[in-house]
């Protein structure tokens, strides 16, 4: 056996540390190369800063859990070195910059004795991954069919540090994460008959990332300090994104196609108004719940932030985001009824009254009378839907286009109902089913449930619907588990967010631009609250026994 001072022991102890530090350098070096080559300006500061953070995390976690780091660190380095070779030689400059920044910062922290532990570092990186969702496009690298952005880098770094920092401890894997991984496996199977297998691979990787994020966030969010970090970073990101959108509307900066009635539709950093509005709509319930539950001294600030995000969402003119906002607001007020009894009871009464009014209107033939003649003829089966849409397209192009995509998606699904045309292959198959004047490739069917049916068959549509219902049920249970705790507001906000996700996806697809991480955050929080409750009950039983 080697002694503690022998060269072999020193090499063995330092190897995982060096490997993980190298992994950190490679990851941030790739981004550094892109920033140096394309972005320029102030963003060139980001690579050495990011590299310093990752190198610091690598240094500390390696010292803390040296034996547990060897295999994950080696695997990460092997994969990232392969990427670096593909990206070389520009990546070498980024790596050099990152290494220099990492050595300086890690050395300073080491001298000061303030290196963070693995859990704190993982929480910070996981929070950064979710917070960077709207900004992931500011630094992207194309790797085959996939595009890796800032949020992906942060999530990958968090995963490496988390695995290394845990050592050989038992990892609890949420069942919903396993279900999402199985869903990704089915998507990969659709590549057998796909027109282009590259989008299938991209979709599979995207959903595997969501599954991994659920596992990571569920573990990280067990701790109250990690939840605080996530709340702050995500709150800052949402406020910044809303401010960017408002600035675009006020200054009129944006494409001419986004000008509606003399006002630019806000699009933020998403380049499109619908995902911008959808992103804000996912976080609006959290802000509303926070404003309800926060101390009175802080309530004006949270309410002001909620109003800022609300205005930016409205100006986006995303109808899907509006639908999600209305539904999620009602859910939040109902769930928070113990705190806002009058508003909650009023909301419940309005929902019941609205449902009864709509049912009565429908039963008396109101819907048929409200439809234009061509639409009524299509509903009654006297004409084809596509022929009716050609007639009414000039009245409201946005609505006509959505209906046209639904018609196209349905025909696509009927052509291969079991396995679909291939995950991610909607555009590839679009020209076989579209019709004039809707010839531009839309990217998806403007209804995620129909989109999965068209691309991956009936099993995928049923599976995704089941995943959505399961996620909503878990968030409902989380609210029940968190009653009377300081995190009741967060679970209510997550429930509202998952409802906004489901409603918006009826007319769009929000699983773009990395927003699957927000979906994973909602689910991860529900598991963290459940596990936290279980731990408190075990402690209570042990305390009573003693």
Compact summary:
The protein is an all-alpha fold and 546 residues long.
Topology:
Blueprint: H1 7-39, H2 46-64, H3 66-87, H4 90-112, H5 118-131, E1 141-143, E2 146-148, H6 150-166, H7 175-189, H8 197-220, H9 224-251, E3 259-260, E4 263-264, H10 273-293, H11 299-316, H12 319-335, H13 341-363, H14 366-370, H15 373-379, H16 385-392, H17 397-415, H18 426-430, H19 448-482, H20 488-504, H21 516-545
Antiparallel strand pairs: 1-2, 3-4
Helix pairs in contact: 1-2, 1-3, 1-4, 1-6, 2-3, 2-4, 2-6, 3-6, 5-6, 5-9, 7-8, 7-19, 8-21, 9-10, 9-11, 10-11, 10-12, 10-20, 12-13, 12-20, 15-16, 16-17, 17-19, 19-20, 19-21, 20-21
Shape: globular
For the largest beta sheet, what order do the strands appear in spatially?
1-2
Total beta strand runs: 4
**Order of SSEs:** HHHHHEEHHHHEEHHHHHHHHHHHH
Bin the helical content.
Answer: over 70%
Total number of helices: 21
State the end-to-end distance.
44 Å
Could you characterize the architecture of this molecule?
- The structure is a single chain.
- With 546 residues, the protein is mainly α.
- Helix content is 73%, strand content 2%.
- It has 21 helices and four strands.
- A two-stranded antiparallel ribbon has the order 1-2. It has a two-stranded antiparallel ribbon with strand order 3-4.
- Strand 1 and strand 2 form a beta hairpin.
- It is globular.
Essential attributes:
single chain; 546 residues; mainly alpha; two-stranded antiparallel ribbon; 21 helices; 2% strand; globular; disordered N terminus
